[in-house]
Amino acid sequence: LTGFLNGRFAPLADLQISVLDRGFLFGDGIYEAIPVYNRHPLRLTEHLRRLAASLAAINMPNPYGAEEWAVWIQQLIDQQRFVDQSVYLQITRGPAFPRNHAFPAVTEPTVFMFADELLPPTSEAVANGVAAVSSDDIRWQRCNIKAISLLANVLLKQQAVDAGVAETILFRDGLLIEGASSNILVVKEGVLLAPPPSHLMLTGITYDLVIELARQHNMPLEIRPISEATVRLADEIWLTSSSKEVLAVVSLDGQTVGSGQPGPLYQAMYGYFQVFKN
Ligand code: PDD
Q1: How much is the pTM?
Q2: Which residue is catalytic, options 146, 157, 188, 277?
Q3: Is domain 123-277 in CATH 3.20.10.10, yes or no?
Q4: Which protein family is named in the record (predicted)?
Q5: What is the percent of the chain with per-residue pLDDT over 90, rounded to a whole number?
Q6: Average pLDDT in the 93-100 region?
Q7: Ligand 1-lining residues (CB < 6 angstroms)
């Protein structure tokens, strides 16, 4: 696998960074994960826009313009052997000494990328859906920043793994927020409900795309706060992310969701998504 570090491509095993990197010491950095189908990044403009917003939110300059990013990313993609890929990209505030929480006076960012094979959800997961558990959202109040400091998300995701399910759905103050590494939408009485973007959630590129596809196909849609009770009584629950596309959640905390099978709106949306990505 070929990686990219600070303007240079090399085998991943040959790329090295300083142990003083603020990404390593403080989790001081941001990232993106971009799905690639047939060597073509999906919604690249939107991913690069969110990257720029994350950098601005942590007071870091963007090391490259959008066009430059697009060239680097395509070069990375073209050097892999898989046609469907997941590009991971992260930028940290770089190495600094002595260790000090405050921003260093002079910084040289560390820009790192690699691509790996994108494994779309199995046909079994698409056909039968997946299970989830729920948890109180223990994260901070700037979840709109795609920050590499993911300890809370890691602990929350492990709850799902320990329970033998696919995702942990997060509630804060009685409202649906998102999943540990995905966005969550629900269907009630034929209407697709999506939680409104805020500083408490990461607005997924897939979430935006699903909303766009719902509008295009005249699927009834409401973007509004969703109570925990509404989720538990939902006819359908969907999970969206760059690696999982759109999946139906058919069990939550051991309780059956709707019919217990992926619902009709899910099946329609899955179809729209497959057409769009190709
Ligand atoms: N995670 N919310 C959180 C907390 C996420 O980590 C992700 C994605 C999403 C969905 O965003 P998108 O549709 O842009 O992938 C929502 C990625 C896949 C990751 O961390 O690898």
Answers
A1: 0.97
A2: 146
A3: yes
A4: Belongs to the class-IV pyridoxal-phosphate-dependent aminotransferase family.
A5: 99
A6: 97
A7: 33, 153, 178, 181-183, 202, 204-207, 240-243
